[in-house]
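PROTEIN DESIGN WORKSHEET
SECTION A - STRUCTURE
LENGTH: 138
TOKENS:
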């Protein structure tokens, strides 16, 4: 086992300062970068430069339509910008538990997804707008 490996069992997930952690089954943050081809005559192999960067956040949660449940927070955010915060462990930030924050547009929200005799889950996706921030405190 690698030193510092973690198992997600109690992550913190907040959307617009509303803690939905107790509904979350899965959370992911992805980073990507475009490449720009700058190859020219005489090159034997393609040459590339780093381009624009982007990020996204995805959450799969157990759906709940009660007045104080996650749907009440999320439905109004669909197609708009929302702030989010994620920590690997729902505890104070540290060098081993960084705070990841961003602003993103909610581009996907499966309000109802499931089948007979199974738990209803709702995948949610955000596309980042601006920079993602990683902060830790010792």
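SECTION B - SEQUENCE
RESIDUE ASSIGNMENT:
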């Amino acid at each position: 086992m690698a030193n510092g490996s973690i198992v997600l069992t109690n992550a913190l997930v907040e959307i617009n300062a509303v803690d939905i952690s107790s509904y979350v089954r899965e959370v992911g943050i992805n980073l990507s970068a475009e490449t720009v081809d700058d190859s020219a005559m005489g090159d034997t192999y393609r040459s590339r430069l780093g381009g624009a960067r982007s990020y996204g956040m995805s959450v799969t949660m157990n759906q709940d339509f009660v007045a104080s449940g996650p749907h009440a927070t999320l439905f109004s955010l669909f197609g708009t910008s929302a702030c989010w915060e994620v920590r690997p462990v729902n505890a104070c930030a540290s060098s081993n538990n960084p705070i990841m924050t961003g602003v993103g547009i909610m581009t996907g929200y499966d309000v109802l997804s499931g089948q007979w005799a199974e738990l209803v889950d709702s995948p949610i996706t955000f596309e980042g707008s601006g920079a993602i921030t990683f902060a830790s405190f010792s």
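SECTION C - NOTES
The mean pLDDT is 93.
The chain has one domain: 12-34+47-135.
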